Amino acid sequence: MKSALHWFRRDLRITDNTALAAAASDAESVVPVYVTSRWRGGHRWTGAPRQAFLCGSLASLDKNLRSIGSRLVVREGDAVEELVRLAREAGAEVVFTNRDPDPFGRKQEERLAGALKAEGRELRVFKDVAMHERDEVRTGEGTPFRVFTPYSRAWAKLPKPSAGPRLTRLTTPEGLRSEGLPEPGRWGLEPFRGGVEPGEKAARERLRKFLAGPILSYAARRDTMADDGTSRLSQDLRMGLLSPREVYHRARTAAEGAEADGRDSVWKFISELVWREFYFQILWHHPEVLDHEFNPKYRGMEWDTDAQKFAAWCAGRTGFPIVDAAMRQLEATGFMHNRARMITAMFLTKDLHLDWRMGEGFFMQQLIDGEIASNNGGWQWSAGTGADAAPYFRIQNPWTQCSRYDPEGAYVKRWVPELAGVAVRKILAPPADGKPLVPDYPLPMVDHGTERDETLRRFRETAT
Ligand SMILES: Cc1cc2nc3c(=O)[nH]c(=O)nc-3n(C[C@H](O)[C@H](O)[C@H](O)COP(=O)(O)OP(=O)(O)OC[C@H]3O[C@@H](n4cnc5c(N)ncnc54)[C@H](O)[C@@H]3O)c2cc1C
User: Fold this and answer.
1) What atom in ligand 1 is closest to the CA of residue 364?
2) pTM of whole model > 0.85?
3) 196: Cβ below 6 Å to ligand 1?
4) Fewer CB atoms < 10 Å away: N or C end of the chain?
5) Ligand 1 proximity of 362 Cβ (cutoff 6 Å)
6) Which CATH number is 296-463 given?
7) Separation of 419 CA from ligand 1 center, angstroms?
8) Residue 272 known to be catalytic
9) What is the CATH number of domain 130-162+199-285?
10) Residue ranges per domain, the chain?
11) What are the tens digits of pLDDT across the range 118-163?
């Protein structure tokens, strides 16, 4: 084939990129393209932190492509229209892309395939975002799994795709029009500087550091919020700065020669990668989870929408130090520790009784790693309505969670600096004297015991 396009979406790398490697091997010249949308201002599913990380990662992708003789072509507008136009301009017979597991991406693929076909061109779509996708992992009856543990067992039994090399050469024709590399201002967003460094090189360095040591103590340290015991790779997997295959195989290599504890830790880490794929397959088979409770028993559940309560939660001013620390970590860095995500999500749904969709949307706007499938899965798990969710009656107590996972108050004091001088025991329980911990810090906005009872009532009434 003479000419092809590679449509970059959530695979912003030149190492082990399945569709890009196929395009490079099948076509004499390849146009690598990214299409930015025209929306401006508020967006339900993204916000300044993730768009800033995207922009940095696109700049780094362009640099990497230039180092192998190519460059990134950027177009703006409706992806299908722009790709068809560019395919015409470049005389491309085929558009290569990696499959997007989200319903929005799937729809685009369907539209694009139809539009290209009408002109005698072709769309070729590859598996890349996950090691196993769609209905590859099935029960004995051939149906998709609804529960994680049997899914993960079946997942582990399947042969794993290997990781490919870094591309060394890509020939791209001259003279094609390109917009400049995007900046957050293009979408009317403020710059965001709080996140980790974008780009494939920085992601690979994070992976190297994690594999060089922390992975072997992952199981013991992953829940301690003040500790840096997790990989911090979620945004890299989200944007495709690293392939899941590379992360998986290199993690397995790290286990070789390790003590039993170290090997267990590596498997614990790999099981988190499996959760990511579990939620992809849930969303693939049940796109309705974006609007409804996964568990039909809880559809029609009574959720509140109180704007003031929601604003206090978003701003990290609930008077629950552990919740406030987590929300402020999110605002400052575009990231929140996994344990903290569970605590804040349970607090929103079980202590404030607010609709989980409000929290889900806020997380998508704030998180750099915002991933529709995992975020929805995490929210529905916490709300007690999801696939393999925490049973509704297992309601975490935010005070106990703080004592267990931040016993020294280090996480709280880092993110809620006004509490830095407060004795730790006062952070771990509601104020006994009914007075604020420091003058400008709010009193706990609700009583956990009372709200727990209210949650139990709502769930019982819906389920019967
Ligand atoms: C309410 C809620 C919302 C969440 N929203 C997102 C989201 O938008 N994007 C996202 O990537 N993760 C989400 N998670 C999962 C998890 O919190 C993050 O993946 C994790 O905190 C990222 O940090 P890490 O890379 O250091 O993770 P590690 O602990 O090092 O895990 C390694 C990788 O496994 C995957 N992973 C880990 N835990 C989970 C999980 N529970 N579900 C799915 N994948 C997982 C991630 O890709 C992660 O990078 C959410 C969890 C909850 C409870």
Assistant:
1) 8
2) yes
3) no
4) C
5) no
6) 1.10.579.10
7) 28
8) yes
9) 1.25.40.80
10) 3-128, 130-162+199-285, 296-463
11) 999 999 999 999 999 999 999 999 999 999 999 999 999 999 999 9
